[in-house]
Amino acid sequence: PVPTAMLRDEDTEADFQRFLRRVDDVTSLLQGLSSPDVAVKEKAIAEAEEKLRAGGTSEEEETRTTVTRTVINTRAPVRAYAFLAMLEKDAKERAKQRKRNEQLANALKEKGNDAFRRGDFARAIQRYTEGLEKLRDKQELYTNRAQAYLKIQEYEKAIGDCEWALKCNEKCIKAYFLMGKAHLALKHYPESRQCYEKILQIDPQKESLFKDCVNEVNLEEKRVKDEERAMKEVQAGSVAALSIKELLQRLDTPGQDILFYAGGIRILAEVVKDCTEQTLFRTNNGFSILGDNEAVRGAFCAERKSPAEVELCVSLLLLWQAVCAGNEENQRLLLTQPDVSAQLPELLSSGILEIQRETLALIALYSEKESGRKLLLRHQDLTRWLQILMAFVKCSDARAGSAMNILSDLIGEKRFKAQCGVLLSTGVLPLFTQLLASARLVNQAALARAIGTVGSLCADPGLRARLAESRECWQGCLKLLDGGPDGSSPSYQECVFAALGLMMNLLLESNGIIQDFAVDISGRCLALLSHQDGRIVTRAIGVLSRVLPASSSAVEEVVKAGVVKKMIRFLKAGGQLTASYGIKTLGICTKSNRQAQEELVKADKGFAVLLRLLQSEDEMVVGNAAFCLGQCLGVPGAGTSLLNSNVVLLLLRLAGGDAARTNVQENAAIALGKLCVAEPRHVHQLRKLNGLAILNSSMKYVHSS
User: Fold this and answer.
1) Spatial separation of the C-alpha atoms in residues 454 and 284, rounded to whole Å
2) pLDDT tens by residue, 596-640
3) Confidence tier at 521 by pLDDT (50, 70, 90)
4) CA 160, CA 348: separation in Å to the nearest integer?
5) 669 and 694 in contact (C-beta within 8 Å)?
6) Structural domain contains residue 253
7) What is the rounded CA–CA span in Å between residue 213 and residue 179?
8) What is the H or E stretch that residue 79 is in?
9) How far apart are alpha carbons 557 and 628 in whole angstroms?
10) Which residues contact 318 (CB under 8 A, 6 or more apart)?
11) Contact of 545 with 586, CB cutoff 8 Å
């Protein structure tokens, strides 16, 4: 029998087993009550009567209950038949509900299948999971989800789903087949063979499939053993005496199988350990290995690789890492090999874990240094690389981090950004929005970095404009901000932080799409103002300050939701960046919204916060504070509340000052004029400070405003 791994969720397992026992009990009872055998029927009636007396009591509770008296019930048969009727009614209702659930589960299965066919395995897993929430004993959903887990190298999860599928259908061939694949990937060779043997036991007609699968296991096991033996030989020094030239000559031996060449290349990779050996490799034409050996070249370039070809490809990648590490000339020569240059993007998108891992390691040797990046840009077409590398966000292992490191290295290169623009709309954006929408199913640490990479593209005005016009991009960002079950996890919060940064960059643009989404964007940001992470709060205020000018409806909604009081509270707490975003947000709200003006006067007693901001060293903050003050002086009593303050002196200094930003003088002059109009007693203070000339010059701003 195939050993069964312990299920992680013991409660789920127990619940599932109780459910199956109840089904068996009720089925048995119904059969007994309908039996023509009098003895069987009487026994069933007694059991039904016992269940009626027990009510909803569980078995555990019954064992703790002591019966102290005998109950004689002459109406037992009548009550039993009533119980039968009740069971039949309940069974019909359950059948109807199950039918509805089955329809929903089937619909979700089809959506999952569509996503799987598109290669969106994270979305497929999500749909299959939703289907299982509707119908937990649907075997196809477990096997389909297991197949999706295999695609993203989540082998343990795939095995778990296969085990659940076999609980639903113990003769499910697909479950054993997929479980065998998962065990093989985990190098559990005996378990993998046992799975395939089960297939043959269930259906002897599957002998051909069985032989192919077992051969694959045997070949992989042999490969691993040969590799281990070769490594032991290297470590023992049995090949230490061989020169690089001799090793390369051995690889020229024609007619050998792929594993022979793979082992030789792996040994050569172990021998090359310093710059002297790297030079010897180059001077002995080591880079011609692909051109001179057709078997090696064919295996390296094969579209669909056998396990032996995978091993050879990995060995080549390890060799090139060894000969190129810290050696710029070798790095240049490698990229001038046509097959290498053409195959690098194909290897990255191969879907084979070992190949992808070592390809990423090789590329990292180039991307981490400026000279290496220049070589990549000179010899590689990087048009597809942003899309290819971003796809690794779906991986849960170290490949995701490695891919993001390479992207971080390349994104600062102007030529790389230009190449990214070629497939931005057709390749990058569809993938990126898909990742945003399925944030809780992907590698969130990597997703946060991918969002940051897209944010870096916004430094290019042309790319930023194209991103800002993508309705799907905005929808993806909004869905991510909604959070969900994972919203409080640190990795998800990093995604939210990155998404807010991206949105701030995109909001440097102005278009109809932004106007359409302004209400939704401002609503999400307002909800984030109570977030525990201060960085997220600051960026949410920043997004508000940039999106509100796009929509008067958005301004109206946030004012109704209490944004003015929230901004005053944040401004009181301090923080230079928060102050900059917060006062700008207040300026936008008070510009045309009377409720906002009145709430600011009420929330900021005596304009204490605004007066403090008028003395800030940040001219933008000062200018917006003066603007806010001027907007609110039309509220009855606002000017009077400032009679005992130094507001006239502050505004006079600003209006007559030499700030680099002219709007500081302008806004201060306007506020000064409005102050004297709202409360004439301020004119007396103005005269004392000899500021009437400045006031007179400001009147044109007052009238125009």
Assistant:
1) 44
2) 999 999 999 999 999 999 999 999 999 999 999 999 999 999 999
3) very high
4) 28
5) yes
6) yes
7) 12
8) helix 76-117
9) 19
10) 265, 266, 269, 358
11) no
CA distance linking residue 694 with residue 522, whole number of Å: 39
Query: What one-letter code names the amino acid at 672?
Result: L
pLDDT at 34 over 70: no
Selection from 416, 409, 355 nearest residue 381 by Cα: 416
| Whether 247 and 209 share a structural domain | no
Answer yes or no: are the C-beta atoms of 399 and 356 closer than 8 Å.
Answer: yes
CATH label of the domain that carries residue 157: 1.25.40.10
Per-residue confidence at 31, pLDDT binned at 50, 70, 90? low
Q: Is 554 helix (H, G, I), strand (E, B) or coil?
A: helix
In a domain, 22, yes or no: no
- 515-533: buried (b, 16+ CB within 10 Å) or exposed (e) per residue? eebbbbbbebbbebbebeb
Give pLDDT, residue 62.
Answer: 39
Sequence-distant (6+) residues with CB within 8 A of 255 are none
Sequence-distant (6+) residues with CB within 8 A of 423 are 383, 384, 386, 387
Residues 164 and 197 reside in one and the same domain: yes
Q: Cα 630–631–634 angle (5° rounding)?
A: 95
Res 689: pLDDT: 82
Q: State the average pLDDT over residues 652-663.
A: 79
Average pLDDT, the chain: 85
Closest to 443 in 3D by CA, of 121, 190, 114, 677: 121
Q: Are residues 173 and 300 in the same domain?
A: no
Decide: 438 and 127 in contact? Cβ < 8 Å: no
Parent domain of 654 = 630-704
Identify whether the C-beta of residue 486 lies closer than 8 Å to the C-beta of residue 492: yes
Q: Is the torsion defined by CA of 81, 87, 92, 93 positive or negative?
A: positive
For the cut 50, the answer to whether the pLDDT of residue 26 exceeds it is yes
Evaluate if residue 467 carries a pLDDT over 90: yes
Q: For 555-569, what is each residue's pLDDT tens digit?
A: 999 999 999 999 999
Cα–Cα distance for residue pair 125/483, rounded to 1 Å: 19
Q: How far is CA 5 from CA 243, 437, 508, in A?
A: 48, 32, 54
Residue 659 has pLDDT above 80, yes or no: no
- The answer on 343 and 318 residing in a single domain is yes
In 3D space, the residue among 89, 133, 85 whose CA is nearest the CA of residue 109 turns out to be: 133
Whole-angstrom distance, CA of residue 62 vs CA of residue 60:
5
Among 172, 197, 221, the domain-final residue is 221
Task: Give the whole-angstrom CA distance, residue 439 versus residue 453.
Answer: 16
Of 475-489, 637-651, 681-695, the range with the highest mean pLDDT is 637-651
Domain boundary among 186, 221, 256: 221
First to last CA, the chain: 85
Q: Which residues contact 690 (CB under 8 A, 6 or more apart)?
A: none
Shared domain for 244 and 365, answered yes or no, is yes
Number of independent structural domains in the chain: 3
On whether both 124 and 244 belong to a single domain, the answer is no
Determine, yes or no, domain membership for 190: yes
Angle at which helix 353-367 crosses helix 370-379, to 10 degrees, equals 110
User: Residue 119: which of 351, 426, 352, 304 has the closest Cα?
Assistant: 351
Token pair of 336, please?
A: 């001038």
Whether the CB-CB separation of 344 and 380 falls below 8 Å is answered with yes
- Percent share of the chain, pLDDT over 70: 82
pLDDT of the residue at 16: 60
The total of other beta-carbon atoms located within 10 Å of residue 398's CB is 13
**Contact of 541 with 585, CB cutoff 8 Å:** yes
Residue 179 is assigned to a structural domain of this protein: yes
User: For the whole model, what pTM was predicted?
Assistant: 0.69
| Same domain, residue pair 209 and 260 | no
String of DSSP letters for 478-529: HHHHH--TTTTSHHHHHHHHHHHHHHHHHTTS--HHHHHHHHHHHHHHHHGG
Q: Say whether both 310 and 244 belong to one domain.
A: yes
Tokens 């230009």 label which residue?
418
